[in-house]
Structures are given as C-alpha cells and as structure tokens.
Specification:
Helix content is 44%, strand content 20%. By secondary structure, the protein is an alpha/beta fold.
C-alpha cells in the first residue's frame, strides 16, 4: 500500500494505492511544517486522517507539501514515521518537486504551481535544476490566488472597477472595507482569505476590467518567474486550482508573453500516482 499526499496552504489531498491499483482518497486540512509545529501536525493526522484508514497497512509514504523546505524534511519524515510505524519507505519533499514529478515525470520541463500560493521551477527529470524564489504573497507569489484577491480588492476600493462590481461584491460577501482590513491585517491566514475571493472574481469574468486584471496577474507570473529560466522553447506546465479554473486567461497571458502553455492539472495526485507506480 502506497500513500501519497499533496499538501497546500488550504488542504491536503491523500491517495492510498493498493498493489492491485485500487485507490482510496482522503482529505485533511493543509499541513505546513513552516507554520505548524510537530504537535499540531501530529494532531491533524490523528484526528483527520488515521481514523479513515489502517496506518499499519501502509508500506510507503510520499508526502509533498508547500512548507517542506530542505531543512524541514527530516522533521516531517519523523512525524510521518510515528504515524505510520510499519512503513518501510517514508519521504517528504516540497510541493514543487511533487508538481514537477506529476507534470513532467522523468522528462525535462518547466513546472509551475498556481493555487493559493505560486511557485515554479526548471526540472531536469530528477531534481529541481533552477527555481525563481516565490517569496510569498506579500513579496511575490505573482499569479496566485492570494495575489489575485489582493489585486482585486486594491482595484475595487481604489475605483478601478465599476460601482456595479463593488455593489455585487459587498452584497454577495456581506463584507465592508473595514471587515476586509480586519481579515487581512488582524486575523490569521490572510492568504487563504484573499484566495477565497477567486470564486467571486471567476463569476464576473464577463466584466472586461476584471478579466484583464486576471490576465495581468498571470502576465506578472510569466515575466517575473518564468522569463529568468531563458527557456522559451519549453512549454510551461501547471498544477493548481487557479491555473485550472482560469485556463482561458492563462492561455491569453502565455501567448502575449511569448510562452507556450503545456499541461494543466487541477491536482498533482493523478500524476504522482503514475510516477510512484
């Protein structure tokens, strides 16, 4: 039995594959060893994951997560080994390596993540060969859901979008500008809140100013994150909810920035199941 996890800022998708190829799927909240300590991560596993399965039946665990930096790998592996004591193989890697393996397999290519956060790399078929630092949603994360939400609110309250869009937004969400300031500056997980605005934005793509704002977010991603690889000969591949739901806008941006849009997956799990077969 092989257990594979893809963990983002908001949720973790788990897939348990048997020797026969049958797959069971589970979901828990996001796990990030940068923002969560060992006690909290262990509690998430014990409360949300382990009751759904038999941990002693798991032979291999491959965990890919947004907070699994090189210096966090050993700590994450230790947590997983405690949760799955019978597993003979336990690995923890960055979500970017997971995206690369899901999108490119063992082939050379450009792999990107556009979800709540954003990241990208040049992948040589085995390891990440080059990475433009994402820097998070305050300093970077161009193209992400969090930055999309930030750009939307900025445009909304600085008068760059129509009064109708503003009225529709406040009616749909029940939020005032004061509420938004509180959510962004005083409450935890501001990035998740900002990314959650994508649902409203997506439902108003018929407004040209909103659609252009979305495309502009992707323009920034290509210019600041993909251009440094100097590989316009390679298609740019994507995983993540933002890339998946805004494929049309992503295609427009890629073309006008001189790139070719490659494979787009909503989740890397299917690709990772193939990779680890």
């Amino acid at each position: 039995m092989v257990l594979i996890a893809d963990s983002g800022s908001t949720k973790t998708d788990w897939a348990l594959q048997s020797a026969s190829g049958a797959v069971e799927r589970f979901h828990t909240q996001g796990i990030n060893p940068v923002h969560q300590n060992r006690v909290l991560i262990t509690d998430i596993l014990r409360r949300e994951l382990l009751p759904q399965m038999n941990p002693d039946a798991v032979d291999c665990v491959y965990f890919y997560g947004s907070g699994v930096l090189p210096e966090k790998e050993s700590a994450m592996i230790a947590i997983l080994q405690e949760a799955f004591p019978q597993a003979k193989q336990v690995e923890a890697h960055s979500d970017l390596l997971g995206a690369s393996r899901a999108l490119c397999g063992h082939n050379y290519g450009i792999a990107s993540i556009l979800g709540t956060g954003a990241n990208s790399c040049l992948y040589d078929g085995e390891v990440i060969a080059q990475n433009t630092p994402a820097l998070g949603y305050i300093l970077g994360d161009e193209g992400s859901g969090a930055v999309l939400g930030r750009r939307f609110l900025n445009a909304l309250y600085k008068g760059l979008l129509s009064e109708k869009i503003k009225a529709d937004f406040e009616a749909a969400t029940g939020l005032t500008m004061a509420d938004i300031i509180d959510r962004v500056y005083r409450q935890p997980h501001a990035n998740r809140f900002l990314a959650s605005l994508s649902e409203f934005i997506h439902s108003h793509l018929d407004d040209e100013a909103v659609r252009e704002m979305v495309i502009g977010n992707f323009d920034d991603f290509f210019q600041k994150n993909i251009t440094p690889y100097n590989r316009r000969d390679l298609p740019v591949n994507f995983v993540g909810s933002i890339a998946w739901h805004y494929q049309s806008e992503l295609q427009v941006s890629a073309a006008r920035q001189g790139f070719t849009l490659g494979t787009v997956l909503q989740s890397p799990i299917e690709g990772l199941l193939r990779f680890h077969q």
